[in-house]
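Predict the holo structure. Ligand: flavin-adenine dinucleotide.
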Amino acid sequence: MADSPEVDVLVVGAGVLGVTLAYWLSTLYDCSIAMADLAPSAAMHTSSRNTGVIHRPYYLNPEKKRTFARTSLLSHPMWERLAKSAGFPWKTAGTFNIALEEEEVRVLEEYHRWGLANGMDGSELELMDGRGVASREPEVKCVAGILSKTDVSVDFGAFTRHIWRILLARGVRFLGGRRVVSAAKTGGKVVVALRDARGSSTLGCKFVINAAGGGALALANRLGFGSGYAQLNFRGEYWVVGEPFASRVSTNIYRPPKFPQYPFLDPHFVVRADGTRQIGPNAVAVPGPYVYSGAGLSKALSFLDRPVWPKARLFANGDFLTMVAGEWRSSLSKGAMCGRVRNFIPALRAGMLRSRAVFGVRCSVVDGSGFVPEAILLRGEGSAHIINYNSPGATGAPAFSAMVLDRLKRDGFLQGLRSRDAPSAIPGWDYRSVVARL
Ligand SMILES: Cc1cc2nc3c(=O)[nH]c(=O)nc-3n(C[C@H](O)[C@H](O)[C@H](O)COP(=O)(O)OP(=O)(O)OC[C@H]3O[C@@H](n4cnc5c(N)ncnc54)[C@H](O)[C@@H]3O)c2cc1C
């Protein structure tokens, strides 16, 4: 074991959540901060492996998904300032959510109400019938649609790395390529054990913030948090749509979920920040958070990680199993994947899908009642853990992380740190004004 250096705060995970948390910490406190990530650099996992849409919160139930809705709304102008000041693409493609059957139209009407209840401006949303949709997107066949005009296509990976570079310039120590394998509270500090290619080391810290994405629940469990939760992992796969067909659709096309209680959406047609088009993601059940290819059979036993019963309960449900099988079908067969999008873009053909694109894995937390709808913040002396931080987590990260720090501050967990008020390194990112509007 190497020596045990000390830092005030260790942030585990250099995805969009970890870097925004460290950004606010380094703005508000004069303290030593380290970030550990099992990858050698920032944003190597979900934060670069997503659909890349800054979602407006029209499709989020204001009661069940209030935090995601609020933080998405507040973060939108913050990302815009970052993108424009740093010269990253900011492509206001807009998103159609479409109904293929009459009975789905009420879902779109509900979306309209939710958007307004979540603070969107009426001018951002427009309900239209199938002909209205076709007048804007002639390749799309549906009975009705709601257009969210202010959805934006971006590169969240680039945003994350930009903030990470600001952190390095501020003196945050980055421990890349190091997996946090365990942590224990001893004598007023948390001692974290890290492993890298060369061996093991330990790090003592006053406080650990666990923003480890797909690894967050396992780490929380090691510090005695979240034992009633289990995790299921769903790989979202995309295909690149070739030209000349791709450019014939210029808005994101989404469908409302058939079973909102499960994380299965029909794949969307997506306009990327660089102007390319893709279809995806599906939601293929895999046994680990980083199973980006194959079935990950070597990790299959992880299904038996405790607690087993919330997972077993789902897998005993016939509807759930049918969906799991359908998602695997669209993983194995390009034609099956294409067929799901042809339901609303009939001219699309499997031959137009040129290559597979970058995949991401959604790590969903389940408890005895099924999938948990919101992110969960678990906290106690010495550590805080954010689990189930799923879509639209990339959209909402700047405001969500400000909310987390505000809660930790108010609960007295950051008392030992010396406050400061560093000037914001990102134009328009003002902690107090975000927190006041949460
Ligand atoms: C297919 C898909 C599409 C999505 N589309 C969108 C979208 O369009 N818009 C949107 O807003 N959101 C979207 N999301 C959600 C969004 O991408 C995530 O909510 C967000 O990226 C999560 O960020 P994170 O920092 O928590 O996780 P990550 O980016 O995964 O970061 C966690 C980090 O922790 C590290 N780590 C894990 N375990 C350990 C350990 N033990 N020790 C050290 N390091 C560890 C990992 O290496 C990783 O870098 C999508 C997600 C998926 C899967």
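The chain has three domains: 1-87+152-228+374-438, 95-149, 230-371. The chain has eleven helices and 22 strands.
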